[in-house]
Amino acid sequence: MNDALDVALRLVIVFAVFLVLPLVIGQTEHKVMAHMQGRLGPMYAGGFHGWAQLVADGVKFAQKEDIVPADADRRVFQLAPAIALLPYLLVLVAIPIGPGEGAVGEVVDAGIFFVLAIMGISVLGSLMAGWASANKFSLLGGLRTAAQLLAYELPMLLAAASVAMAAGTVSLPGIVDEFEWWWLPWQIVGALVFFVAGLAELQRPPFDMPVADSEIIFGAYTEYTGLRFALFLLAEYAGIVVLCGLTTVLFLGGWHGPWGAEGLGWVWTLLKTAVLAFVVIWLRVSYPRLREDQLQKLAWTTLVPLALAQIALTGIVKVAIN
Q1: Would you put residue 226 in left (φ > 0), alpha (ψ -120 to 50) or beta?
Q2: pTM of the predicted model as reported, rounded to 2 decimal places
Q3: Angle at 284 between CA 302 and CA 16, to 5 degrees
């Protein structure tokens, strides 16, 4: 009975994190972009520093009419936002934020394979939305999503494999337990490949070709309104939390802090995740969108070779230290 209660409590905490952190990231993005771009719009709602901007956005989406195009595949169209969002909840269940079983929703032995497989499912939401909308711009956005997934899934998997080789395990808590600070210099290439490929899978700028508003309106999400559209935005911010959390666990030592404060391990995990989330927002403001050919070239001629080189280097280091 106690074990069941413990699992239920951990799952409730994960669900609460799933509901809160993406909203915090969304609110932060409004503020950071407003400062970096010198625009004051998000600073007015609610008075002091625009504290009610998130509330205003929520009310705006709730008031909009929920429209389904007459020629759309209604069931697929309505299901797509949930398919895009819910996989990130499952991934958060497996990401440890501290030492011990109490700091993770559920310990998964093959944690890396689980989280990468589930993250791939979320892309199906965009594919379903593009196909079901009966709109040529939405269909183009869905096709671009498929091409981007095929290009960036491989380097992401290879980069994760390199750190699994270094740790000798595919368990996420096991990788953090085996982490050593001297890993940072020789795993940095894998970390960069993983992070960049993750941004591309999330369709975040500068990899937002599937939702290029200057070319295809808003891609796969063009026909969505109201709360269904808000769910796609929430999925994007949930994906940022997941990507930054995974990068922290795999490459930055997870809950390990520079001063050995293991009792505050969850603080270190959240702090590192927050810093990486700031970098994601910073990149959106700083870099223009890539062309489709540039996006594919970056994946196949740069990221894949770098990931393979990282695996080779990891093998050499493992042999040398053993």
Answers
A1: left
A2: 0.89
A3: 105
